[in-house]
Write a structure and sequence with these properties.
The protein is α+β, with helices and mostly antiparallel strands. The chain has 3 domains: about 5-120, Acyl-CoA dehydrogenase/oxidase, N-terminal domain (Butyryl-Coa Dehydrogenase, subunit A, domain 1, Orthogonal Bundle), CATH 1.10.540; about 120-230, Butyryl-CoA Dehydrogenase, subunit A, domain 2; about 230-380, Up-down Bundle (Butyryl-CoA Dehydrogenase, subunit A, domain 3), CATH 1.20.140. It is built from 10 helices and 10 strands. The protein has helices spanning about 5-35, 40-45, 65-80, 80-100, 105-115, 230-265, 280-305, 315-340, 350-360, 365-380; strands at about 120-125, 140-145, 145-160, 165-170, 180-185, 195-200, 210-220, 225, 270, 275. It has a 4-stranded mixed sheet, covered by helices on one side. A 4-stranded antiparallel sheet has the order 2-3-7-6, covered by helices on one side. A hairpin with a 2-residue loop joins strand 9 (about 270) and strand 10 (about 275). The longest helix is centred in the middle third of the chain and has 37 residues, at about 230-265. The protein is globular, with a radius of gyration of 21 Å. The structure holds flavin-adenine dinucleotide (FAD). Flavin-adenine dinucleotide binds near residues 124, 125, 363 and 367.
Length: about 375
C-alpha cells in the first residue's frame, strides 16, 4: 500500500496551488460578493488543461486520470469553491456525458471546444419537481421524423446560462420510468431554449446556477446522446464519477478553511497569548485535521479505484458523504476560531462554510449517499 501521491500528481498540485494563490485568491472574495461568474478566468483554466482534464489528447484535452481530476478540483476549492464547482461540473457532468456516451461525431464537435473553454458544458437532470427522485422527471422529448421536440423545465443547472451546450435528460417513454429516459445535447441559442431564472444562493455564489426552460426545442436525432431510453442508466455512471469530484471539492474547502484558521489562531492574541495556545482551539484544529485526513483517504481511494478500472460506486458515495459532512464541520470550526471576524465578509473563511454546505446537497444529498451505500452493503 502506497500513501504517497506520484511525482506527476505532486507536480500538478504544486502548479495549481501557485496559480490559485496568484490568480484566484486575490479575486475570490469580490467574485462572491458580486455573485458574478468570472468569465475572464476561463481561458486561463483552459490553458492549464482544467477544462479538458479527462478528455483524451486527440480531442484537445489533457488526458489526465481520475486522481488528477480529484487533485485539481481539491486545489481550486482550497481557494474558491465556486471555481472548483465550475470545473467539476463542466468536466464531470456535461463534458463527461459526451465523453462516455457520445459517438465519434459528437466527440469531435463538442470535446475540443469544451477543452478550449469556448463552450462550457451544462448538464440538466434536476427539475422543480424531481431532485433525489431524479427519474421522476417530467421533461419530455417527442419524436418528429428525424427530429425530437423537447418541452420542460430544469432546475439548479450549473453553467446553465454561460454554457455553450447543455446535456438534457428527457422522457421518451414516460410509462417506462427509469428505462424511458434519453439524453440530448442542446446548443446554446437553439430556439425555445433559454435560462429562465438566475438563482441567488447561500454559497457557490460566483458559480452560474439557473433554471432552464425548454419550449418546443427542436433538435436533430444526431443530437441524441447514447441510445434511446438508456439516458438514465448512463446517468448513474456519470453521477458516480461526479461524486468523486464533489468529495474532492469538499476536501479542498475544508483544507483551505483549516489553513486560514491555523494561521489566524497564531496571530490573534487574547489574554496576552496567541489563541492557538488555548487547548479549546487546539482540539478544534486537531479534530479538523484528523477528519480531513480521513476524507482525503476516502477521496483518493475512490479515484484510485476508478483509475484501476475497478468498481467504485460505493466508495465514491462514501467519499462524498464523509468529505462533505466533514468539510461543513471543519469550516464551521474554522469560523469559530476566527471569532467575530470570521462572521464578517472581510475574511475568507465564512465563504468556505457557505460553499461547503452545497457539497452535502449537490449530485445527491447525504441522505441519498446513505441510501446508495446501504444498498451496496445490504445487497438488492
Ligand atoms: C448550487 C447547485 C448546483 C446544482 N447543479 C446541478 C446541475 O448542474 N445539474 C443538475 O441536474 N442538478 C444540479 N443541482 C441539483 C442537485 O443535484 C439537487 O438539488 C439534489 O439532487 C437534491 O434534489 P432537491 O434539491 O430536489 O431536493 P429533494 O430531493 O426534494 O430533497 C429534499 C430533502 O429530502 C431528502 N430526501 C429526499 N428523498 C429522500 C429519501 N428517499 N429518503 C430520505 N431523505 C430523502 C433529501 O435528502 C433532502 O434532505 C444543483 C443544486 C445546487 C444547489
Amino acid at each position: 500500500m502506497d500513501f504517497e501521491l506520484s511525482e506527476t500528481h505532486r507536480q500538478l498540485r504544486d502548479v495549481l496551488r501557485d496559480f490559485c494563490e496568484k490568480e484566484v485568491r486575490p479575486k475570490a472574495i469580490a467574485w462572491d460578493k458580486e455573485e458574478r461568474f468570472p468569465t475572464e478566468i476561463v481561458p486561463k483554466l483552459a490553458e492549464l488543461g482544467l477544462l479538458g482534464i479527462r478528455i483524451p489528447e486527440e480531442y484537445g484535452g489533457a488526458g489526465m486520470d481520475m486522481m488528477s481530476y480529484a487533485i485539481s478540483v481539491e486545489e481550486l476549492a482550497r481557494v474558491d469553491g465556486s471555481l472548483a464547482l465550475t470545473v467539476a461540473s463542466h468536466n464531470g457532468l456535461g463534458t463527461g456525458h459526451v465523453l462516455a456516451f457520445g459517438n465519434d461525431e459528437q466527440k469531435k464537435k463538442y470535446l475540443p471546444k469544451a477543452a478550449s473553454g469556448e463552450w462550457l458544458a451544462a448538464w440538466g437532470l434536476t427539475e422543480p419537481g424531481s431532485g433525489s427522485d431524479a427519474s421522476g422527471l417530467r421533461t419530455v422529448a417527442r419524436r418528429d421524423g428525424d427530429h425530437w421536440i423537447i418541452d420542460g423545465t430544469k432546475m439548479f443547472i450549473t453553467q446553465g446560462s454561460v454554457g455553450g451546450f447543455c446535456v438534457v435528460l428527457a422522457k421518451t417513454a414516460p410509462e417506462k420510468r427509469q428505462k424511458g429516459i434519453t439524453a440530448f445535447i442542446v446548443d446554446h441559442g437553439t430556439p425555445g431554449f433559454r435560462a429562465s431564472k438566475h438563482l441567488e444562493k447561500l454559497g457557490m455564489r460566483s458559480s452560474d446556477t439557473v433554471e432552464l426552460s425548454f419550449e418546443g426545442v427542436r433538435v436533430h436525432d444526431s443530437q441524441r446522446l447514447g441510445e434511446v431510453d438508456r439516458g438514465f442508466i448512463d446517468t448513474l455512471q456519470i453521477l458516480d464519477k461526479g461524486r468523486i469530484s464533489i468529495a474532492a471539492l469538499a476536501l479542498g474547502l475544508g483544507r483551505g478553511a483549516l489553513e486560514l484558521a491555523i494561521s489566524y489562531s497564531k496571530d490573534r492574541k487574547q489574554f496576552d497569548k496567541p489563541i492557538s495556545d488555548f487547548q479549546a482551539i487546539q482540539w478544534m484544529i486537531a479534530d479538523s485535521k484528523t477528519e480531513l485526513d480521513a476524507a482525503a483517504l476516502l477521496v483518493y481511494r475512490a479515484a484510485w479505484l476508478a483509475d484501476q478500472g475497478r468498481p467504485f460506486s460505493r466508495e465514491a458515495s462514501m467519499a462524498k458523504l464523509y468529505a462533505s459532512e466533514a468539510a461543513t464541520r471543519v469550516c464551521n470550526r474554522s469560523v469559530q476560531i476566527h471569532g467575530g471576524y470570521g462572521y464578517t465578509r472581510e475574511y475568507q473563511v465564512e465563504r468556505h462554510l457557505r460553499d461547503a454546505k452545497l457539497c452535502e446537497i449537490g449530485e445527491g444529498t447525504s441522505e441519498v449517499q446513505r441510501m446508495v451505500i446501504a444498498r451496496h452493503v445490504l445487497g438488492g
